[in-house]
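Q: Give me the 3D complex with LLP.
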Amino acid sequence: IAHGKPQRAPAWWLGRREQLLSLAQPGTPHYVYDLATVRERARSLSASNAVDRCFYAIKANPHPAILKTIVGEGFGLECVSLGEVERVFATLPQIDPGRVLFTPSFAPRREYEAAFERGIIVTLDNIEALQRWPEVFRGRTIWLRIDLGHGEGHHEKVRTGGVAAKFGLPMTRFDAFLEEARKLGVRISGLHAHLGSGIEDPQHWRGVYAHLAGLADNVGTIETIDIGGGLPIPYTPEAPEFDLALWRNGLDEIKSAYPRYGLVIEPGRYLVAESGVLLLTVTQTVEKDGVRRIGCDGGMNALMRPAMYEAYHGIFNLSRLDDAATAAFDVVGPVCESSDVLGRGRTLPLATAEGDVMLVADAGAYGMAMANTYNLRALPAEDVIE
Ligand code: LLP
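A: Here is the predicted complex, encoded as structure tokens.
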């Protein structure tokens, strides 16, 4: 029974057990974010000399306290919908619009109009928008998102380049885009590429910068090169820490080869994933055909990542942290889908029982942001701790 996977060493939340248990009291599912962790991650990125500006991809976690914390560290914010843009200005009415970047995908025309009215930076990734809505773009300054021809990342569903991906202008249409832009008096001041999410190779971003800088030299009007987000975090016990020093050195080197352009990154996950935990309450424990299952009051409705990407999150019994973990369990949610499994074969205390509080680790990115009300289950609650 007891050959489940080993689990990753606990992080900030281990010293906060009583506080978390009391936060879980009013009810679960419940997300809790530690702002000190967010701040620490933000500082670890902004310490890099080569990076001129960081925009936090708020899709990962748009909680107002998180936005305030990250903007307080000097970051801008990257948005992909008008809803996200409105969240930013509702939370930070005084924010300089130049610190807000709009990088939508297949957005309706009115969202581009609203973005230009706000004076935020707009990224476009197809020529058809210029052709269909010339009056929206005429005389504007934009950034152009390029498809460099391949995707990267932790799962096929998060790779955003290549023929199968809907994002980015393919290189075959680059010259045509420049020509169309010239006709409309559209100035392209930035080049952008984001190849995917959870990219483990620290050298990836220097390659993107080199590629875009080569193109930028031909455009003539480029001031900024945005090399996207996609920095990973180690979700599994075996995963190595991301080598931030190697990442930094790579950017330093490539930046000194092409010093002309401002270098922009737009990380999401890296800043917030490890700051967040999802608290759940055990509903039932059941054994069926030799498989033990711990049922929780939240599953793929509260945290979609395991069902959608077979993503790994550490799972712990917060009520019995001091008990030896001796038995293998599948940890499941209450949703009527076979994919509603948060973790398989996890080693947890044998005595785990109804009412225990379970903690799902590293859930601060794309957790609450992707939660849903499937089966008419309520959305999780959220709290932050300083
Ligand atoms: N920039 C653009 C244009 C993006 O599309 C994304 C993420 C980011 C930046 C931030 O990527 P990050 O640094 O967080 O990897 N739901 C998936 C991830 C989807 C990412 C979508 N785009 C997951 O839970 O793994």
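A quick observation: The longest strand covers residues 276-288.
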